[in-house]
Structures are given as structure tokens and as C-alpha cells.
Amino acid sequence: MRIVIAEDDLLLREGMTLLLRAESLDVVATAGDPGGFLAAIDAHRPEVAIVDVRMPPTHTDEGIAAAVEARRRQPELAVLVLSAYVEQAFATDLLAQGSSRLGYLLKERVGRVEEFLDALRRVAGGGTAIDPEVVAQLMTKTRPDPRLTRLSAREREVLALMAEGLGNGVIAERLFVTDGAVHKHIRSIFAKLDLAPADRADRRVTAVLRYLEEAQRRH
After folding, report:
1. pLDDT tens digit string along 139-178?
2. Gene3D superfamilies annotated for this entry (predicted)?
3. 31 - beta bridge partners?
4. CA nearest 64: which of 36, 41, 97, 42?
């Protein structure tokens, strides 16, 4: 897995580099600003980019803009965005690009090595990895929507885990239920949210994330 890291905090950038190389992952370049990041993307054609939301010169949305531009230049690029805290507008900007090969994590997850590596591998494999805290805040914002009020408490739990990008087997393990029970809950969620179920997990997650994004915009 070829990786480029864009992070202006030198200690965090070097720490992630050491961590990933210790896991036999190939960090081909690092950058501390958007220009250096995009130059690295063009030069190395990595499979995955890890990008900080806030970067120089203004430390507002330069990281998001650079991630979107990197995906424009290299559409198959997987992007894992890191943020110091939940920034819902930035999260929904990213989701608008589609959820495939996309992750959005709080920086504190980097210290939880297994969670961080799991998210990175999931995104590199074509899936989605959305921080549970981001999902929780999106769902809190969308709860007034009448379709979400149709869901049972258990269905809300399943939906939140789906939105993180987890598959049925992992959801079953997290909730201590069978795969069949999860499948039943998911069929019910799609029916109650007026979303047609799909066989492919990435389409299912995309549908759920788009629903959450559209519902958030209405509030």
C-alpha cells in the first residue's frame, strides 16, 4: 500500500510515518502544506492519502480542498481525512463526493492504533470509514426527520454502524447478535427510510450516508 501523508504538525506527521512503516506499509512521501501534498500525489501516484483538514496558510479548509483536488487528479485515490474535532460541514462536503474509498476520522483515533489501521485498510480496500463521533453528531442533527423517527433503538444502532462503513459480520459482533438478525434490521431500515436495499455493501453505505447528508442539509 503506497501512502502519502499531508499533515502540518511535524510530530504527528513523523509519528504516523513511523507507525505505518512499522506495519510494513509504504509511506512514499509526506508534506506539510497543500502544494507539497499535490506535488507528491502527481509524483508518486499513491493508493492512499492521509490528509489533515486544516492546513497552511489559513488553517481553514485547505486540506479538504486539496483532498478534493487530489481525487480529481487521481479518481481511484483513497483518502483518509483527519480532523482535531468534528467539523460537520467538512464531513458533508466530503460525503458529497461519494463515500467509496473515503474516511473521516478524529485525530485521537491515530493513538488507537488498531482502529486507525482498520480504518486505513478499509478505505484502501474501497470501503468507507467514518468516525463514530461524526456519525453520532450527524444522526443527532437528523433525528427530527420523520423517517428517522420510524426506526427502533436497535435499528438506530445498526444504522450508525452501517454509516461508519462496517459490514454485517462486524455489526453482528459489536451488537452480540446473529448475522441473520442484522440482515433483518437492515431490510427494515431501508424500508422505513424509503431506500431500496442493494446487494453490494458499498452501495448500501452510500445510500445511508447520502440520506444522512441530505437530511442534515434540511436542518
Report:
1. 665 545 577 778 898 998 898 888 777 889 999 999 999 9
2. 3.40.50.2300, Winged helix-like DNA-binding domain superfamily/Winged helix DNA-binding domain
3. 6
4. 97
- Three-state SS sequence of 140-193: HHHCCCHHHHCCCHHHHHHHHHHHHCCCHHHHHHHHCCCHHHHHHHHHHHHHHC
Q: Which long-range contacts (CB under 8 A, 24 or more apart) does 185-194 make?
A: 185/154, 185/155, 185/158, 186/158, 186/162, 188/155, 189/151, 189/155, 189/158, 189/159, 189/162, 192/147, 192/150, 192/151, 192/155, 193/147, 193/148, 193/150, 193/151, 194/147
Cell 454502524 belongs to which residue? 161
pLDDT of 217 over the 60 cut: no
**Distance between CA atoms of 139 and 86, rounded to whole angstroms?**
13
**CATH numbers and ranges of domains, the chain:** 2-130 (3.40.50.2300), 135-217 (1.10.10.10)
* Residue 201 reports pLDDT greater than 50: no
Residue written as grid cell 510515518: 17
Contact by Cβ (8 Å): 197, 151: no
